[in-house]
Specification:
This protein has about 240 residues and is α+β, with helices and mostly antiparallel strands. Helix content is about 35%, strand content about 20%. It is built from six helices and eleven strands. Strand 6, helix 3 and strand 7 form a beta-alpha-beta unit. The radius of gyration is 24 Å and the shape is globular.
């Protein structure tokens, strides 16, 4: 093969390889961590399973992560609200109580801002779960929701049995929570009674936690908004 033939072949072949490279590897692949691996109760080891959407550079097996357990609560309209209402949705959960005079209004204001960002997106939901369910009856929640112009079609305020809510928050959403009155009956101030997290929790369509964010910090909530969009992009590339 003479020099001119070699140059001609290179001229023809190189663009083909460039095209194939861009086709195979030129797409943006977003990633977002998953939290709380599932542990095998028998072996004490992290559970593994076959990866559903395996890429060329990934192993066949992937870590299995815990999912939010199913629950049945009541919303601000007095209607039954269960985890089935969130099936197939990306959603954000936060924890509050209506008598809270410290961090709760700040958190709720930031959640309100996040809901406004996704005002036309029915695939994104928000839930606010009361840590003071005995006091926070549906009418209390409804009045609180009205203060923040909450859209009930996308943002639900939930109450229910404390025996259901506390384990759900502690072991399901994995954020700290305590009722100090259980240890000290002398405590009467609600803000001293209910010790709860300021975190917002992002959950994907499979019920897996994808992020924790400080709900009192605007920059953290900005990060939440960005990572919701990232999660939507991940789902769009998998379909």
């Amino acid at each position: 093969m003479n020099k001119k033939t070699g140059i001609l072949l290179m001229t023809l072949i190189v663009p083909v390889f460039i095209y194939l490279g861009l086709k195979l590897f030129g797409q943006n692949h977003y990633s977002l961590p998953r939290y709380i691996p599932a542990i095998d109760s028998t072996t004490g080891e992290i559970k593994m399973a076959k990866r559903l959407h395996q890429r060329w550079n990934e192993s066949e097996l992937d870590t299995v992560f815990q999912t939010i357990p199913s629950f049945n609560l009541t919303d601000e309209q007095g209607k039954a609200f269960s985890s089935e209402n969130l099936k197939g949705k990306i959603y954000v959960a936060n924890f509050f109580f209506t008598r809270c005079g410290t961090i709760c209004p700040k958190i709720t204001s930031q959640v309100s801002r996040a809901t406004d960002t996704f005002i036309r997106d029915q695939d994104i939901r928000f839930i606010s779960i009361s840590v003071d369910p005995k006091f926070d009856a549906p009418e209390k929640l409804a009045a609180y929701a009205k203060r923040f112009d909450a859209d009930s079609t996308r943002w639900s305020f939930l109450t229910g049995d404390k025996k259901i809510i506390y384990p759900l928050i502690l072991k399901g959403f994995h954020v700290p929570l305590a009722d100090a009155s259980e240890y000290d009956a002398a405590i009467k101030n609600p803000d001293e009674t209910f010790i709860h997290s300021e975190r917002l929790v992002l959950i994907d369509k499979a019920g897996v936690i994808r992020g924790f964010y400080d709900g009192t910090d605007k920059k953290e909530v900005d990060r939440l908004i960005v990572e919701i969009k990232v999660l939507k992009s991940i789902y769009s590339t998998e379909n």
